[in-house]
Amino acid sequence: MNDYQQEYVQVTGRRLPANANLLEPLFADIAAGKQLPPRGQQAVTLGLTAHTLTDGQTDPALFDYYRWVLAHYFTTAQINELTAKLIGMAFTSANVFRTDLPQPLTLNPWQAPAMHKFPLQNHRVIVIENNGVFVYLLRRHPQWPLVLQGGNDFNATYVTLIQRLEQRSVQFTYLGDLDGKGIQMAEHFFKQLRQTPIEVVSALQQPAAVAKWLVLRGKTDAKRTRRWQVDTPLYQMEMDSVVTLGKFVEQEQLIDIYEQQIAQWLAED
């Protein structure tokens, strides 16, 4: 057994799969920095069935070993493979890129690199956490520059494009639900950025306004008002308001206010 085979047995307490050596050419290619085909093709090339490296039910023992080696011996950056994952890896925006294509525009991982230097239509953009609010605002204001956050979907395509746009002086401000999880997601978005001040990202949801909206329009729900971990002072203040008041406000409740604020914020550009 080689080093990582021995460590797998020692650390996990499991037996090495009988067919573990079939993966050796793949691990050697990863270590050498070679570009790999999609995982189904990788598996077939190794003499396995196409779903062996993507479905834990096909060969559970080998799949567990494969995932363990990837996690403990290779970094994500080392694994240079063509992705076959298009669903759930998209970047959806409206009026951000200068194009005649109908809006909104949804980009998959294959298209995204070509957009890194694509001409821009706007340099101020509103990031919307909720699908419905994104569609509703775009229908009512078809020229507004919007990006769909899509809840917890901080996929690699989305994050990379956001960061590339920021490097090109695009400023982002964020709108999300004012509940525990929503505030944590706002902070997570902020932490993906490298140079945009918190004052810009939170321009439409400042702590004083958040506290006011919670008092005037807040609903009660113990699950949605429990504390989530945040460490940015501004988001800690907002989290404190949600938890202390025991109330939350959804984006849909504040559309009338947001429409006015967004128009003013865009006009400042």
Structural commentary:
By secondary structure, the chain is of the alpha/beta class. It folds into two domains: 3-78, no CATH class; 91-267, Dna Topoisomerase Vi A Subunit, Chain: A, domain 2, CATH 3.40.1360. The chain contains eleven helices and seven strands. The strands form two sheets. The chain has a five-stranded mixed beta sheet with strand order 2-1-4-3-5, sandwiched between helices. Strands 6-7 form a two-stranded antiparallel sheet. The longest helix has 14 residues, at 60-73. The chain starts with a helix and ends with a helix. The relative contact order is 0.10.
List keywords for this structure.
single chain; 269 residues; alpha/beta; Dna Topoisomerase Vi A Subunit, Chain: A, domain 2; two-stranded antiparallel ribbon
Short description:
The protein is α/β, with parallel strands linked by helices.
Strand arrangement within the widest β-sheet reads: 2-1-4-3-5
CATH level 1 class label of the largest domain: Alpha Beta
| Helix/sheet category | alpha/beta
The CATH topology assignment of the largest domain is: Dna Topoisomerase Vi A Subunit, Chain: A, domain 2
Shape: globular
CATH architecture of the largest domain: 3-Layer(aba) Sandwich
Number of domains: 2
Gap from first CA to last CA: 62 Å
- Please summarize the sheet with the most strands: 5 strands, mixed
Secondary structure tally, helices: 11
Rg, Å, rounded: 23 Å
Total number of beta strands: 7
Record the SSE blueprint.
Blueprint: H1 3-12, H2 24-31, H3 39-45, H4 60-73, E1 91-94, E2 105-107, E3 124-128, H5 131-140, E4 146-148, H6 156-167, E5 171-175, H7 180-192, H8 198-201, H9 207-217, E6 219-220, H10 233-245, E7 247-248, H11 255-267
Parallel strand pairs: 3-4, 3-5
Antiparallel strand pairs: 1-2, 1-4, 6-7
